[in-house]
Amino acid sequence: MPKAAGSPGLQRPFQQVVPQTGAGALARVDELEAELMAEIDGTSALRKKIVGLQSDMSSLREKVNGLERQEQQSKRSAEAAEARIKELDETVQAVTAKLENRGSHGR
Length: 107
Known about the structure:
Layout: H1 14-17, H2 22-105
């Protein structure tokens, strides 16, 4: 097939793109212009959606990071609480042992 004039890679005849009659050519140009404008509008809408999704993703990342920080803080708090409970338990056991020793010596 011959290549279209002015388009070295286009493999279809030029008359398929734009009819050769004057009125038909203008009508086809108008159709192509409308198609192009629709494509541009669609592309613009997609870009807006992409920007919105990127913003949403960024917000979600921030939330996830915040939750991870909270989780780490909770783990540290839980570990500290467990250590304090162990200390208090050891203290109670020591005091109990001393009281028991006093009780057995006093008899």
